[in-house]
Amino acid sequence: MCQLLGMNCNVPTDICFSFEGFSARGGKTDDHRDGWGIAFFEGKGCRTFLDAKPSVMSPVAELVRHYPIHSTHVIAHIRKATQGKIALENCHPFLRELWGRYWVFAHNGDLQDFYPDDLKFYQPVGKTDSENAFCLILDELRKCFPHSKPPLEKLFPILREVTKNLAEKGIFNYLLSDGEHFFAHCSTKLCYIIRQAPFAAAHLIDQDLTVDFSELTTPSDRVAVIATTPLTDNEVWTQILPGELLVFQDGLPHKFA
User: Fold this and answer.
1) Which residue in the list 2, 9, 46, 186 is annotated as catalytic?
2) Would you place residue 82 in the very low, low, confident or very high pLDDT band (cuts 50, 70, 90)?
3) Which helix (H) or strand (E) segment is 15 a member of?
4) Under 8 Å between Cβ of 226 and 6
5) Cα(7)–Cα(231) distance, rounded to whole angstroms?
């Protein structure tokens, strides 16, 4: 299946170190060779890169690895196709507008026989279960709140209920963000790490690369990195429980009752 990478932080930060290891899984250290993508929120804008080539062979991925784009919300994905051919329109993350904001979604899993035929506002462009699920999520949110984005305490229960229903159809690990809130749902496998003072060095699993974050940060910086499996071998990653939906804000995870 696919793999996910996300970042949420309290100050704009680049993801070059994490993406260096993550992109190696797209054909070098793992077999996720069916395309990749990444989205960076920057103010109200969203900078998105997609390529149907394996990330280890993609000139676009090479650009991202060496281009320090600073963002507080980032979602990346490397694809191992289960539904839909290898094509640009089937690459994650997917992007749509809702309530005057961009929303970005990436999925790891497989929703069997999932072909919603009652979508009203949002329609898939490609042929993946993932894009179908994203369209359904946004459809349901817009039906419940047609005019503007509600407070998080009202939005979250609706998202949790839609997520629960979709997770009953198969494996449904996902990352979702509108540049203000960052949601992470674990169906089978998803973990995170919080980097904050005192910062230390981190070493990638997939590349022989070490970065000492104490040399690159200030004491007030805080960064959450979310991934399908840990990216480093000298840090302690926290596993998200199956069925758990977390909201990350300013580099910290929050749980709602």
Assistant:
1) 2
2) confident
3) none
4) yes
5) 13
